[in-house]
Write a structure and sequence with these properties.
- The protein is built from 8 helices and no strands.
- It has helices spanning about 1-15, 25-30, 40-50, 60-80, 90-115, 120-130, 130-135, 145-160.
- It has a domain at about 25-75 and about 105-135 and about 145-160.
- The longest helix is centred in the middle third of the chain and has 26 residues, at about 90-115.
- The chain is globular, with a radius of gyration of 16 Å.
- It is mainly alpha-helical.
- α4 packs antiparallel against α5 (about 90-115) and α4 packs antiparallel against α8 (about 145-160).
- About 70% of the residues lie in helices and about 0% in strands.
- InterPro entries: Invertase/methylesterase_inhib, Pectinesterase_inhib_dom.
- Keywords: Disulfide bond, Signal.
- One of its GO terms (molecular function) is enzyme inhibitor activity.
């Protein structure tokens, strides 16, 4: 863990990005805010709620961001399948949204795999596609799911850029 934290500090120091003072959720979310689209309170709240994230370094938090994205997309498909979306979308819209969130979950899962293999550009590419996929579901009752998935993708990309 200490070696990884030193590596993150070195990369951040030479990349012109804000340094990660320590491998903590708060400091990593703050450092990721070099991308102005990063919602720091959302970042902190999502990671704080995720078991094991408090002990993770930046690489671990990037992987966790992808896994949180999988969970967010799963929540959307679960709520759709179980009638928890109000007002309920028409059958065709619900099917399109289920397919979209399945694809979002797959993109995040593939990003997690790429991060596990330390293929950072490929992982960022997978997460970069999330917004377009989530927008395939234009049901207003699901807008929060789309927004949360997009925010998590931005966070994942921004944290990944800290470890390149």
């Amino acid at each position: 863990l200490a070696v990884a934290a030193v590596a993150v500090l070195a990369v951040a120091a030479f990349s012109g990005l804000p340094p990660v003072a320590e491998a903590s959720i708060q400091s990593t979310c703050q450092a990721a805010a070099h991308d102005k689209r990063v919602d720091v309170p959302f970042c902190v709240s999502q990671f704080t709620a995720y078991h094991g994230a408090a002990e993770a370094d930046a690489w671990g938090l990037a992987k966790t961001a992808a896994l949180v994205g999988v969970n967010l997309s799963d929540d959307a498909t679960f709520d759709l399948a179980n009638g928890k979306v109000t007002p309920p979308p028409a059958k065709a819209a619900a099917a399109a949204c289920t397919a979209a969130y399945d694809a979002v979950g797959l993109a995040f899962a593939e990003a997690a795999d790429e991060l596990g293999a330390r293929r950072y550009a490929a992982a960022s590419g997978k997460m970069a596609g999330v917004a377009a996929i989530a927008r395939r579901c234009d049901v207003p009752a699901l807008a929060k799911y789309s927004a949360d998935c997009e925010k998590m993708a931005v966070i994942g990309i921004a944290i990944t850029s800290l470890i390149k």
